[in-house]
Amino acid sequence: MERSRAERLISNAEGLDAIVILNDGVPFLDSTFWYLTELTGGSFEGSMAVIGKGGDLNVIVSVLEEETASSGRGNICVYHNREERDNFLKEALKGAGKVGFNTGSASYAMVEYVKKTVKGIKIADARSAISSTVSVKDRKEIESTRKACKISSQVAGEIPGMLSEGVTEKEIAFRIDMRMRELGGTGNAFDTISAFGANSSKPHHSPTDHKLGRGDTALFDFGTKYDRYCSDMTRTVFLSRPPEILERAYEIVLEAQAAGIEKYKDGAPAKDADLAAREIIDATEFKGKFIHSFGHGIGMEVHQDISVSPKSEQILKEGNIVSAEPGIYIPGVGGIRIEDTCLITNRGCERLTDFDRRITFV
User: Fold this and answer.
1) Over the range 206-236, which residues count as b (16 or more CB within 10 Å of their CB) and which as e?
2) What is the pLDDT of residues 13-32, one digit of tens each?
3) 214 with 165: CB under 8 angstroms?
4) How far is residue 69's CA from residue 65's CA, in Å, rounded to a whole number?
5) Structural domains present in the chain
6) N or C: which end of the chain has fewer CB within 10 A?
7) Is it the case that residue 1 has pLDDT exceeding 80?
């Protein structure tokens, strides 16, 4: 019988008697709460998910979320006032000594609240256990990610038809966002990047009123969510023929991505993919122009463990979902990035995003 997510998490948390996931309110909302409960809706501000030593899951929610919470996992504890919430928390942590928190998202105020409410507990950092657990996806998570990737892949194929001389970065970003929603996406995985011409050399460019001109690079980095799971992909195309240096850069980035993805397999050091791609790029005139890592983990957050960087010490595991996104950036000229979302399997790697990676002139 497959273990629950709560059971897997506590088994990865050596030395902890319990883990408390806190949802204080925006911006202190923790995706781990939805991961554990497998809920896809609701805001759950002021809610908590408490995992005990044996993997039992108590979900403490206000009466506002009672109906929504009933469709998820765990023992649902509904409170109507502060006293009731305090009592549910005390009962869930009864006998616990060392209690872990996701210190990367929990507010100081909420951790202090738990300490004052449940006397005698010792606070610990559970981030490592959380990261190692959520980075290995189960079948349900993989299916949701597949659906998100299918949506963004279809939009990628439609991008050339959206482009014409004079359209702005903002206009195309809006069209991409709208199409992802029309096709069933439930929100952006992140703010869409739409970058034309020289702006494409900025990896995290925010769309402006800059207009697309002939010979320009048009770079788009975008993703949607489906049942809270993210897709992430980048497509780079050209409005007619660009400067020759950018055509050469495109072919090198395409080769580098293939070399990195070849290293994606269960049991492989994560850094090997980055080093393989970087070796391709640094052997050319574009040495030093690959200025970020090859990839990162993807889940309910578009950036989560694993780090696919040249200094990463992590090992890839079957069930990891990671990006593959080498790039070349030439300030004042333009940039090239090609990105796919990839699933690590026992046979190697499966691309979950699907679009034509050949050089495209519109």
Assistant:
1) ebeebebeeebbbbbbbbbbbbbbbbbbbbb
2) 999 999 999 998 888 899 99
3) yes
4) 6
5) 5-134 (3.40.350.10), 139-351 (3.90.230.10)
6) N
7) no
Identity of the residue numbered 202: K
Q: What is the 3-state secondary structure (H, E, C) of the chain?
A: CCCCHHHHHHHCCCCCCEEEEEECECCECCHHHHHHHCCCCCCCCCEEEEECCCCCEEEEEEHHHHHHHCCCCCEEEEECCHHHHHHHHHHHCCCCCEEEECCCCCCHHHHHHHHHHCCCCEEEECHHHHHHHHCCCCHHHHHHHHHHHHHHHHHHHHHHHHCCCCCEHHHHHHHHHHHHHHCCCCCECCCCEEEEHHHHHCCCCCCCCCECCCCCEEEEEECEEECCEECCEEEEEECCCCCHHHHHHHHHHHHHHHHHHHCCCCCCECHHHHHHHHHHHHCCCCCCCCCCCCEEECCCCCCEEEEECCCCCCECCCCCEEEECCEEEECCCEEEECEEEEEEECCEEEECCCCCCCCCEC
Query: 50-83 b/e with 16+ CB inside 10 Å = b?
Result: bbbeeebbbbbbbeebeebbeebbbebbbbeeee
Q: What confidence tens digit (pLDDT) does each residue in 153-182 have?
A: 999 999 999 999 999 999 999 999 999 999
Tell me: pLDDT of 2 over 80.
Answer: no
- What average pLDDT does this structure show over 65-71? 95
pLDDT at residue number 28:
82
pLDDT at 162: 98
Q: What is the mean pLDDT of the chain?
A: 96
